[in-house]
Design a protein that fits this description.
Elements (H helix, E strand, L loop, with lengths): L7 E7 L4 E4 L5 E14 L5 E13 H10 L5 E9 L7 E4 L5 E12 L1
Parallel strand pairs: 4-7
Antiparallel strand pairs: 1-3, 1-5, 2-3, 3-4, 5-7, 6-7
């Protein structure tokens, strides 16, 4: 089946200032991460905060807008298409604390 709907809408805060660069053809590209925290309480009453991070890539005019108006801590809602790693899943990496994390990449179509 072709042309199936693939859409992700993710709300969060920028973890760092966006990086904006330009391709050799002059097209702007911006890369940044957004994090969103979910809080819940487990059976013994302990509150857990779980933050999920997404790497976001924006192209063209959208990339320039992000570079000009967004900075670390900016609240955004990003709509786009999920890009998976070579294995079809998220990219897995080892954090500085020794634990493991996973990250998906989102190619932005709209940012609010």
């Amino acid at each position: 089946m072709a042309n199936q709907l693939q859409l992700v809408i993710y709300e969060g805060y920028l973890g760092a200032d966006p990086e904006v660069s330009f391709t050799q053809a002059g097209k702007a590209v911006s890369n940044f991460r957004i994090g969103s925290t979910r809080s819940y309480t487990i059976a013994d009453g302990t509150k857990i905060d779980e933050t999920t991070w997404l790497r976001v890539t924006a192209w063209g005019n959208l990339a320039e807008v992000v570079g000009n108006y967004c900075k670390k801590g900016t609240h955004v809602i990003v709509q786009g298409v999920l890009k998976v790693g070579e294995t079809g899943g998220p990219v897995v990496y080892q954090r500085k604390d020794g634990g493991y994390g996973a990250q998906y990449e989102l190619t932005a179509e709209k940012i609010r």
